[in-house]
């Protein structure tokens, strides 16, 4: 993940997230300070403290705004770096049947990584600072009562661990089923005329209903698992919420604690408990994004030669070529072939017998498991090939771009001599 992150903005976001995390500790302190000011009955001191608290609150609002801006910049940098990396990685080495699944990864999975991991990561940092800062305020007023409150809150952080593995698995299932749905809809819409002409609409609707049901069910199961984890956290936290409050009240009655100190501890502890709850929610969200992150990290950069020569083809030779998509499975076995300049060959065979695979080996799009492909006695990686495919390959761009593919070519290149 490090290679997709802008280090400068990432570090700045961490700093601002930490400062934003001080908002609640400061609010806790200022809230308890109100009771101290009432007890002191010192008007000049009250005016000074109100002014200080107001200015500090404005600064915290500014920090929170800047934190949001920098977080958005981090998301934008991550998004751009990932998308640029994917265009240069083995992400693009896919068959046409998998295009929709890859598009699903770009549109859905990346969004989940941004929303459920990156944003939650900075939220987690802010919540940790909130807990530490608020705990300092609470401990400064009463260590014993704070210990009682924290003891009840800390156990809630254990509960999500029981659900994290299941959440990650269900997120992976949802991502897979969503990719299947997008693939199906892409094929369905692309070939709708054929479907209607052969009166097969009912069949496709029934098939689509099954795929849609699977996708929505997987999402429901994932969301339910997250909700169940949060439910048990809430049950545990709020079932024991008033027990430490009762202990605090007794301490005030016995003169062991001032009212202002009790308010500070109680108010602090409430936010500490809520912060623990927020941390648990962050961890659940981050767990749901883990399968997508693993998938992103599985892509490897590819080296593309930008200076491949366009040489005349005199001979193209296949020496003892073997190829298989899976270990132990051969599509082509010990193929030998020699093509001279000017030769015209017809390659025939049944579907799945390896015609397209052989052509992809010739053009260098696939690398043989065994043997080698030579052009003019050299590896075919040193040459470029042109092919006219069965289906039209038209880019959603200008006519000039479709003719040149973005290369700067002189008009004379298109004129007959």
TrEMBL record:
<keyword id="KW-0812">Transmembrane</keyword>
<protein>
    <submittedName>
        <fullName>ABC transporter ATP-binding protein</fullName>
    </submittedName>
</protein>
<feature type="transmembrane region" description="Helical">
    <location>
        <begin position="259"/>
        <end position="277"/>
    </location>
</feature>
<keyword id="KW-0067">ATP-binding</keyword>
<dbReference type="InterPro" id="IPR036640">
    <property type="entry name" value="ABC1_TM_sf"/>
</dbReference>
<feature type="transmembrane region" description="Helical">
    <location>
        <begin position="121"/>
        <end position="138"/>
    </location>
</feature>
<dbReference type="InterPro" id="IPR011527">
    <property type="entry name" value="ABC1_TM_dom"/>
</dbReference>
<keyword id="KW-1133">Transmembrane helix</keyword>
<keyword id="KW-0547">Nucleotide-binding</keyword>
<dbReference type="GO" id="GO:0005524">
    <property type="term" value="F:ATP binding"/>
</dbReference>
<dbReference type="Pfam" id="PF00664">
    <property type="entry name" value="ABC_membrane"/>
</dbReference>
<feature type="domain" description="ABC transmembrane type-1">
    <location>
        <begin position="11"/>
        <end position="288"/>
    </location>
</feature>
<dbReference type="InterPro" id="IPR027417">
    <property type="entry name" value="P-loop_NTPase"/>
</dbReference>
<feature type="transmembrane region" description="Helical">
    <location>
        <begin position="144"/>
        <end position="163"/>
    </location>
</feature>
<dbReference type="InterPro" id="IPR039421">
    <property type="entry name" value="Type_1_exporter"/>
</dbReference>
<feature type="transmembrane region" description="Helical">
    <location>
        <begin position="46"/>
        <end position="66"/>
    </location>
</feature>
<feature type="transmembrane region" description="Helical">
    <location>
        <begin position="231"/>
        <end position="253"/>
    </location>
</feature>
<dbReference type="Pfam" id="PF00005">
    <property type="entry name" value="ABC_tran"/>
</dbReference>
<dbReference type="InterPro" id="IPR003439">
    <property type="entry name" value="ABC_transporter-like_ATP-bd"/>
</dbReference>
<keyword id="KW-0472">Membrane</keyword>
């Amino acid at each position: 993940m490090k290679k997709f992150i802008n280090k400068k903005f990432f570090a700045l976001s961490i700093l601002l997230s930490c400062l934003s995390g001080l908002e609640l500790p400061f609010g806790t302190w200022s809230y308890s300070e109100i009771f101290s000011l009432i007890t002191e009955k010192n008007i000049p001191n009250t005016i000074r403290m109100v002014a200080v608290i107001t200015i500090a609150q404005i600064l915290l609002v500014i920090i929170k705004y800047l934190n949001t801006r920098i977080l958005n910049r981090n998301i934008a940098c991550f998004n751009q770096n990932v998308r640029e990396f994917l265009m240069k990685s083995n992400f693009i080495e896919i068959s046409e049947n998998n295009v929709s699944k890859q598009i699903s990864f770009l549109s859905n999975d990346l969004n989940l990584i941004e929303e459920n991991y990156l944003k939650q990561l900075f939220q987690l940092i802010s919540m940790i600072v909130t807990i530490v800062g608020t705990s300092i305020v609470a401990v400064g007023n009463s260590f014993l009562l704070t210990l009682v409150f924290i003891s009840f809150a800390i156990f809630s952080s254990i509960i999500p661990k029981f659900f994290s593995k299941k959440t990650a698995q269900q997120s992976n299932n949802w991502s897979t089923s969503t990719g299947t749905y997008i693939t199906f809809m892409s094929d369905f819409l692309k070939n709708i005329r054929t479907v209607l002409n052969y009166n097969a609409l009912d069949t496709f609707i029934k098939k689509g209903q099954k795929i849609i049901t699977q996708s929505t069910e997987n999402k429901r199961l994932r969301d339910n698992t997250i909700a169940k984890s949060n439910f048990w956290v809430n049950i545990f936290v709020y079932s024991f919420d008033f027990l430490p409050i009762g202990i605090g009240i007794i301490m005030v009655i016995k003169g062991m604690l001032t009212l202002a100190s009790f308010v500070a501890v109680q108010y602090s502890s409430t936010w500490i408990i809520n912060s623990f709850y927020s941390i648990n929610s962050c961890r659940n969200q981050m767990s749901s994004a883990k399968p997508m992150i693993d998938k992103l990290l599985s892509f490897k950069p590819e080296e593309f030669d930008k200076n491949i020569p366009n040489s005349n083809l005199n001979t193209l030779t296949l020496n003892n070529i073997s190829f298989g998509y899976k270990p132990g499975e051969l599509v082509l076995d010990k193929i030998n072939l020699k093509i001279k300049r000017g030769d015209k060959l017809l390659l025939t065979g049944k579907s799945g017998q390896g015609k397209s695979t052989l052509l992809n080996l010739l053009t260098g799009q696939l690398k043989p498991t065994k043997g080698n492909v030579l052009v003019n006695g050299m590896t075919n990686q040193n040459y470029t090939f042109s092919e006219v495919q069965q289906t039209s390959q038209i880019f959603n761009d200008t006519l000039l771009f479709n003719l040149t593919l973005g290369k700067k070519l002189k008009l004379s290149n298109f004129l007959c001599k």
